[in-house]
Amino acid sequence: MPEAVSVPTPKKGTVQIDPRGKSVYQPQLDGLRALAILGILAEHFGLALPAMLRCGPLSVRFFFVLTGYFITLSLWRVKAEMAESRESSHRPLGRYYLARLLRIGPPFYFALFAGAALGIAEVRTNFLWLATFQANNYIAYLGYWPDSISHFWSLAVQEQFYMLWPLVVLALPRRWFLPLMISFILFGLGFRIVCIMLTPATLLRWVTLFGCLDSFAVGGLIAYLMQAKVLQKLWQSQTMLIAMPLIAFACFFLGRALMTLPEGNLWLALTESVDAIFLAWVLTASLIGIKGRYANILSWSPLVYLGKISYGVYVYHVFVIVVVSPLLEPYGYSEAHGNLVRLMILFTLTLAISSLSWHYLEQPFLAWKKSLSPKRRPALEPVPVTSSQTTFA
Fold it and tell me: Is residue 5 a part of any domain in this protein?
């Protein structure tokens, strides 16, 4: 999950886009991370929700979209550094890969070793698959969800994305970026359709990088359109300002309805596509459009803090379920009874472990990562679209 950039926080309700293209910390994004991780926790802790409010899968996709946005911007900076650097042109790219490892690696490998030490059989048996970020491909091979390690599939997809995306951004001529993002979005949909036609099983289309590529591409597309000032122009249009949320929420509810279809139905392939439209609006609104009370809600300090530690929450929460749930069952606190006390215990323990991890494990490595980085440069890759080139109603 992408980390926040540590820079001074702007005033609430202001447009928080640096005119030079630099990443500016936005508490709203951490608020959205918090809402996304709460959706995942509700799903995995067994909180009974109506089908139309089931947001676990949508939340995972939000982290993919956010990753696509931030990593694309980061790689444009790397590209600028490689062009201007007097040192080896490969050093900025090396720093990029090291930065990704320093962000994801410490909590991830700590969780793996802790899981093995606690005797979680699926961690011990499949340690090599997990440690090499191949959990998603292993799950696709198995054809079922291994309960205690299934959540690592999305981390594997993200790491594979981190490894491969520089080939797209750094080697790609600027004029090809937009068409390629659109191609990736269509490819993701086509891949899921083919998977459903070949087999009704969910896993292959869900857990592989190919099936998630369109979510990352949506994030990359938003990065491009933000840098080109296209989305800012759209937001100035009263027509689009009304139409965009209506379309977005229509896609949200359509996505929840599609999830109720039986396996093997070709319309299921559209679920992630319509979710991506909703998530694109959510991210864009957070970047340039959320003001007033909505910004204040998403910038509420407990929510922002939960967003900051959300990566640890995701990494540790399943192990908390696996280890603690059997200890609660003799007291009648089981998932089968939908017990609120059980939910609160799991949630509190997960937050406590994640908070300790954030302060004493992740923060030192993030400080090291920051010390390795040169002074941030603008992400200048896209050429802004002028009003003479594009008009909006």
Answer: no
Q: What mean pLDDT is reported for the chain?
A: 85
Q: Using CA atoms, how far apart are residues 178 and 221, in angstroms rounded to an integer?
A: 7
Longest dimension (CA), the chain: 70
3-class SS of residue 307? helix
What are the CA-CA distances from residue 109 to residues 46, 104, 143, 223, 307 (Å)?
Answer: 26, 9, 25, 30, 21
User: What radius of gyration do the chain's Cα atoms show?
Assistant: 21
Q: Is residue 237 part of a domain?
A: yes
CB count in 10 Å sphere of residue 235: 17
Over the stretch 14-47, which tens digit does the pLDDT of each residue have? 333 343 444 567 888 999 999 999 999 999 998 8
d(CA 272, CA 336): 29
- Which domain range does residue 203 map to? 27-372
pLDDT of residue 374 exceeding 70: no
Q: Are 240 and 234 in contact (CB under 8 A)?
A: yes
In single-letter form, the type of residue at position 166 comes to P
Alpha-carbon distance of 172 to 165, in angstroms, equals 11
Domain membership flag for residue 14: no
Of 198, 222, 205, nearest in space to 136 by CA: 205
The tokens of 41 are what? 């926790």
Q: How far is CA 18 from the centre of its chain?
A: 22
Q: Which amino acid is at 313?
A: V
Q: Which of 9, 27, 96 is nearest to 372 (CA)?
A: 96
Q: Domain count for the chain, please give it.
A: 1
Asked if pLDDT for residue 11 goes beyond 50, the answer is: no
Identify whether 275 is part of a domain: yes
Q: pLDDT tens for residues 236-250?
A: 877 777 888 899 999
77 near 340, Cβ under 8 Å? no
End-to-end CA distance of the chain: 36
